[in-house]
Specification:
Blueprint (H helix, E strand, L loop, with lengths): L11 H15 L3 E7 L2 H14 L5 E8 L7 E2 L4 H10 L3 E5 L5 H11 L6 H14 L32 E4 L5 E4 L10 H8 L9 E2 L4 E3 L4 E6 L2 E5 L2 E2 L7 E21 L3 H19 L7 E6 L20 E10 L2 H12 L1 H4 L5 E19 L4 E8 L40 E3 L4 E2 L2 E4 L2 E8 L5 H7 L2 H8 L11 H14 L1 E7 L4 E7 L19 H6 L2 E3 L3
Parallel strand pairs: 1-4, 2-4
Antiparallel strand pairs: 2-16, 3-12, 5-6, 6-10, 7-8, 8-11, 9-10, 12-14, 12-15, 13-14, 17-23, 18-20, 19-20, 20-22, 21-22
Helix pairs in contact: 1-2, 3-4, 4-5, 7-8
């Protein structure tokens, strides 16, 4: 662990100033993984904040004990949290890197008295935890989509989203819920999207505590704010023998530049600017062009084109060229920023708003390590205050702003089969959300009308998926035929598509390997996580069979 530097999430100070008084007043424990690489430093900060607030609190820390190389971190499970709860009865628990689901599963194990070999209960608890781990994405956040009648919530409906919570019994019965009268929406569709978020093989979703099988999970709405979740079971090999470890590796030097063009033939001027910068770079560093990716914001920065439509340029009067490079040498990165700045004097007319930058890039490489080789410890401190009696805090009734929220305007139980034998956008048949794990992408295909899954399986095939995502690998807005041939060869050799059926929710989970330009830490794309790819998928036109 690194201490003495802000290796922890600096936002912990803001959250603790707001939440500590309320938590102490109500007897609520706070458990957070905001300790990151410096949980001891985060503990010191929370102790300091508690002192300034006049609060006497016990702050426990659970963190990995590093052996060997510094900077390496392992996703821990629930055990360190459970130990803190049992040994210290703390007000706050701060962890190092830990699986998101463990933040919720740990308290369940402690409160419900589950045993570590009670795998059926752990599986159900892990399902609940996975549904909760992205917060308001379960209750309508990141779900609203104007133009899609199945997701077209009013703007104001998102003003007062409720964080989800879970009701779970000793025998593992799970309900997810949101606050009564709050905004957003909680239903089968929001639960299905979150279920498949960042999932690979749904029969073997690996967490540090249990390997989960979600193939038969299903959801039943009990009310507008409560959903019953059933069907989670341990996988055939229920406990992982290895844990996921992140190892920092030198990824080179990244550099970027942006410039805007507007008005007549602005796209051609942006294209000319790209040509010039690439040519100038080749003069100084021959062969470096393969390190550079470029795109025109307002035209193709997200590659959201249909594979069945002409790629001809529509009328654009406001675009921005962006070029990103990932280089071996710092000097090459600096050269790109210098050449980009030269567009002010040597480039096409009317370019403005140039911005450039460069930085050292570190990628977190995924490796597996035997769980017997991972060590962790717990530690506790109590804040010291002048007055040993905690100050009393109370919420004033008029201190919370309230909104009058419209009811959800989504149709209920009005789903019908998507039309067959005609071209329709995939939007009309299904909805989707994208997740990322390193250099891999997954997206869900969740039909509006569940029986449509049988017809969708005939359309959503590995070749179809490769055709849709191939544009992501274009290194320029207007690639040559040679560039396209090189791209397609690389896809054939490196990109792998896996399609899994999740029968409990009548959906598909599609995994695309090696498609995210190295992953979020070193990607040269404007959307480094690949979040927008779900809409690239949904805008494709398909023909469903009868």
């Amino acid at each position: 662990m690194i201490t003495g530097a802000d290796g922890y999430d600096s936002r912990i100070a803001d959250w603790m100033h707001m939440l500590l008084p309320l938590a102490v007043e109500r007897g609520t424990r706070i458990i957070t993984n905001m300790g990151a690489m410096d949980p001891l430093g985060a503990q010191e900060k929370v102790i300091e904040i508690a002192g300034t607030l006049g609060l006497s609190v016990i702050v426990a820390v659970a963190h990995e004990v590093s052996v060997g190389e510094s900077g390496i971190s392992t996703y821990l499970g629930s055990a360190p949290i459970v130990e803190c709860l049992e040994k210290y009865k703390p007000d706050v628990i701060i962890t190092s890197r830990i699986a998101d689901a463990a933040l919720f599963l740990g308290p369940m194990i402690y409160e419900l008295g589950w045993n570590w070999d009670d795998l059926k209960h752990l599986a159900k608890g892990t399902l609940a935890s996975h549904l909760l781990e992205c917060g308001c994405q379960l209750t309508g956040g990141y779900f609203m989509h104007p133009g899609d009648k199945h997701r077209d919530l009013s703007f104001s409906n998102l003003l007062d989203l409720s964080l989800p919570y879970v009701e779970v019994s000793f025998d593992g019965e799970v309900y997810v819920a949101k606050a009564e009268g709050s905004g957003g929406i909680l239903n089968f569709s929001t639960c299905a999207q979150q279920l498949l978020y960042e999932i690979g093989d749904p029969s073997a979703y690996v967490t540090p505590d249990v390997v989960l099988n979600i193939q038969d999970v299903t959801f039943q709405s009990i009310s507008n704010s409560k959903v019953l979740c059933t069907g989670a079971t341990p996988s055939a090999v229920p406990v992982p023998c290895k844990l996921l470890q992140l190892v920092p590796k030198d990824c080179g030097w990244k550099a970027w530049g942006e410039i805007s063009y507007g008005g007549y033939e602005c796209v051609k001027r942006a294209t000319a600017a790209e040509f010039l910068v690439r040519s100038w770079m080749e003069e100084v560093y021959p062969g470096v062009g393969d390190c550079i990716v470029s795109y025109i914001i307002g035209l193709d920065s997200l590659k959201a084109r249909s594979i069945d439509r002409s790629s001809s340029v529509t009328t654009n009067e406001d675009v921005r060229l962006r070029m990103d490079g990932l280089f071996e040498l710092k000097e090459q990165a600096i050269q790109l920023t210098n050449e980009f700045t030269a567009l002010y004097t040597n480039g096409p007319a009317g370019g403005g708003g140039i911005s450039t930058g460069h930085k050292k890039e570190i990628v977190l490489q995924k490796e597996l390590i035997g769980r017997d080789h991972v060590y962790w410890r717990t530690w506790v401190r109590r804040s010291e205050v002048m007055n040993s009696t905690n100050q009393a805090f109370s919420l004033k009734k008029n201190s919370v702003k309230t909104f009058t929220l419209p009811k959800s305007n989504l149709p209920e139980n009005e789903h019908s089969p998507a039309p067959s034998g005609q071209r329709i956008p995939l939007y009309d048949a299904a909805h989707s959300r994208t997740g990322d794990k390193g250099n891999d992408l997954n997206f869900s295909i969740i039909p509006h009308f569940p029986p449509d899954i049988e017809r969708l399986k005939l359309v959503i095939t590995p070749p179809w998926v490769k055709g849709v995502v191939s544009n992501l690998l274009n290194t320029s807005s207007f690639p040559s035929s040679g560039d396209l041939n090189k791209r397609d060869k690389w896809i054939d050799e490196h990109v792998k598509v896996e399609i899994y059926e999740v029968k409990g929710i009548h959906s598909l989970n599609v995994v695309v390997r090696n498609i995210l330009d190295g992953g979020v830490n070193c990607s040269r794309r404007i959307d480094r996580h690949g979040k927008t790819i779900s809409d690239v998928i949904l805008r494709q036109e398909i023909v469903l069979p009868p």
